[in-house]
Amino acid sequence: LFFFFSYFIKETVLNINIQLDFEVTPTLAELYMQSTQCSFIGYEVPLTLEEATQKLNQYSQTKRYGKFERLAIMKIWEGDTLIGFSLPRAIMEIEYRAFKIENSNKDWYRIGTIFIGDQYRGKGVTSKVVKLFKERYPNLIWQCEEGNIGSAKAAEKAGLDYSHHIYFKDSTFWSFDKDEEFTNSYMVFSTK
Description:
alpha+beta, disordered N terminus
């Protein structure tokens, strides 16, 4: 007797949508707090829920995150569940050279770091979010750390093309060439 076992991998189809606004909710604050525990976000000391709420409220009121004015807080939904966020912004003209943007007659945008809650990671959410954002803002730049293979794959899957590497000494000084001073390496992807 031969037994034949078939294994079917059930592909979960997620209903992903994005919402762009500056409303701060408790769930958003919880996700923001969780994001500060990830090394790629850049916090040395993770925020408490209260601190995360305060920071989001500050971003909401000033429309700024760091040095840059933000387009909105992009909320990422799976059905009616908030599962992630990002802080997209317009690319400033002073950044065009670093991102190798030649056509300054267009408005260019950058999504920024996308944070997805643990249970939704590895399911194609990031590439879907990039595609949805690109429908509204077609001229798009995506930057990710050189070793972030998942982020690079998501950019390519969303239809962005690899453009170049950029190396930072700090948040102000950058170069197209890596050396002992410019050691923080990022890959840049863009629409054509």
